[in-house]
Description:
By secondary structure, the protein is mainly β.
Amino acid sequence: MGSRNTSTRSSTAAPRAWTPEALSAAPFRKYQCGNCGFIYDEAVGLPEEGLPPGTRWEEIPESWNCPDCGMSKSQFELYVED
Ligand SMILES: [Zn+2]
């Protein structure tokens, strides 16, 4: 005799692991100004321009200009390193 009192708690809440999505989604790229050769590095950003490290090129407003020569963002091209 005897009553078993087993209460099984099934928690579906999985532990939330910190996933750096912004870092793992895609590798950081660089863009070079087609006029003066200035290189914008997404990993570095331009803190003095209000762009914190990790700011994606797509996140930079179209009104942004090259800090060196003032060329518009559209004049930049993807910079590929060998
Ligand atoms: Zn430039």
